[in-house]
From TrEMBL:
Belongs to the multi antimicrobial extrusion (MATE) (TC 2.A.66.1) family. MepA subfamily. GO terms for molecular function: antiporter activity; xenobiotic transmembrane transporter activity. Its main location: membrane. Keywords: Antibiotic resistance, Cell membrane, Membrane, Transmembrane, Transmembrane helix, Transport. The chain crosses the membrane at residues 16-36, 48-75, 96-118, 138-155, 167-188, 194-216, 236-260, 272-295, 316-336, 356-381, 393-413, 419-438. Residues 448-475 are annotated as: Disordered. CDD domains: MATE_MepA_like. It comes from the Bacteria. This is Multidrug export protein MepA. The keyword Zinc-finger does not apply. It is a multi-pass membrane protein.
Length: 475
């Protein structure tokens, strides 16, 4: 039984496990890079609170670098998949070299511009005189390593499109383990502090980039690398940017939200409030990461069955992914409520920072049990081909509702208002997404009946043709 038949016939539960577990592992490993850095940095003796605050100030820059990684990586990967599907292997091969060149050129530009204006950017992004030194120590090293960052991210994505998802995941796991070991060694054994965390990240990304390059240069890849493909092709660049611009724009929007939030946090809660948000967002991202992996796994199942007009399986697949997402988020929410000190304490043990973080976490996470509707619902709408509607729903939660909430609520509730902004956006976006989902899923019963009638009609016509042929042959 081939893959496509399996998507249309195998039990939804088995399919979700088969497709989601590798995606969840990949997402968790990728997310650990930043989370591990934050845990080690927050526990640096004597300077942990200011160091993790400094790290929080650098997040908009980190997000901008990620945005360019997604522009090149996702744009290239999708184009390779399309070209291979069309049987245009030579064109698909050219994308590999172009991705390498784009990553190097873009990385150099970001490094130079970033290092030239690092002080001004950090002050705009929420740094104070107390936190600027830590933010600068960290981000200067990260900016120097932008080339390997972009190479690692974009090429690792293309390895999956080349038909080697296990190799892609293995490279990511090796990079992540290396980062953890180097973090502990450089920060504590060699007393390099926050700079040690940055060096560990760059070395780990460098290792990932080298292994990804070796995959293509060794000749073991399905798409063979050719030096001639390093020369930039205008058509390829345009096609990569056309597809990659959507996730690129989403990350830039996220960076803008981080800048606005950091400045509001510094105004209403001081430097430690930024450190608290860094901790809170890390905890919530950790809980959301399996949901993003679940979305990746459910997408081909929903998309295939929607295209095949198997609407009952579309509905079943979505509801199963929603149930799994809600279960994970509810368990996470219970843990947050029962063990807030233990969870926050992983990132920092400073009493004042812990107090701010725990209070903020309790408010910030209050909508976690229902937010699965918004996150999986947006993915569902995208999976059935309604990309524009999905984009609006996604922006609704993270930008359209969140930015006004961050700017308005603190005027009435001060620091508490900033913690309230995300659950406010979550509640409204979940309500709107829920209404759209209800209407979409409610229409499937009628669509299924129409599809079955159409199928029965075609079968009947085939039977009549066969009977007519039999009759003619007898005569």
């Amino acid at each position: 039984m081939n893959g496509e038949q399996t998507l249309g016939t195998e039990s939804i539960g088995k399919l979700l496990l088969k497709y989601s577990v590798p995606a969840i592992i990949g997402m968790m490993v990728n997310g650990l890079y930043n989370i591990v850095d934050r845990i080690f940095i927050g526990n640096i003796p004597g300077v942990g609170p200011m160091a993790i605050t400094g790290l929080g100030v650098t997040m908009p820059i980190m997000t901008i670098i990620l945005a360019f990684g997604m522009l090149i990586g996702i744009g290239t990967t999708t184009n390779i998949s399309i070209k291979l599907g069309q049987g245009k292997v030579e064109e698909a091969r050219k994308h590999i070299g172009n991705a390498m060149t784009l990553a190097v050129i873009t990385g150099i530009i970001i490094s130079v511009v970033g290092l030239l204006f690092v002080d001004k950017m950090l002050m705009i992004f929420g740094a104070s005189e107390n936190t600027l030194i830590y933010a600068k120590d960290y981000i200067k090293i990260i900016l120097m390593g932008t080339v390997v960052n972009l190479l690692a991210f974009s090429l690792n994505h293309t390895i999956r499109a080349d038909g080697s998802p296990k190799i892609s995941a293995g490279i990511m796991i090796i990079g992540c383990i290396t980062n953890i070991i180097l973090d502990a060694t450089l920060i504590y054994k060699f007393n390099m502090g926050i700079q040690g965390a940055a060096v560990a990240t760059v070395i780990s990304q460098g290792l990932t980039a080298i292994m990804s390059l070796y995959y293509y240069l060794s000749g073991k890849s399905n798409l063979k690398f050719e030096r001639s493909s390093l020369k930039l092709d205008k058509k390829i660049i345009i096609s990569v940017c056309a597809i990659g611009v959507s996730p690129f724009a989403m990350q830039l929007a996220a960076s803008m939200v981080q800048v606005i939030a950091n400045n509001a946090l510094r105004t209403y809660g001081g430097d430690l409030a930024i450190g608290a948000m860094t901790t809170i967002s890390s905890i919530c991202i950790t809980l959301m990461t399996p949901i993003f992996g679940l979305n990746q796994g459910s997408q081909p199942i929903i998309g295939f069955n929607y295209g095949a007009q198997n609407y009952h399986r579309v509905k079943k697949a979505y509801l199963a992914s929603l149930a799994a997402a809600t279960g994970v988020l509810c368990i996470g929410y219970i843990f947050i409520r029962l063990f807030p000190e233990m969870i926050v304490g992983m990132f920092n043990s400073d009493p004042e920072l812990m107090e701010i973080s725990i209070k903020g976490l309790e408010i910030y996470s209050i909508m976690l049990p229902i937010v699965g509707i918004s996150v999986t619902g947006t993915n569902f709408i995208q999976s059935i081909g309604k990309a524009k509607q999905a984009m609006v729903l996604s922006l609704l939660r993270q930008v359209i509702l969140l930015i006004p909430a961050v700017m308005i609520l603190p005027r009435f509730f001060e620091l508490t208002g900033i913690w309230m902004a995300q659950p406010f956006a979550d509640f409204l976006s979940t309500t709107i997404t829920g209404i759209i989902l209800f209407r979409e899923l409610s229409s499937y019963k009628k669509k299924q009946q129409e599809s079955e009638k159409e199928s029965d009609s075609k079968k009947l016509q085939c039977m009549k043709k066969e009977l007519a042929l039999d009759s003619d042959s007898k005569h």
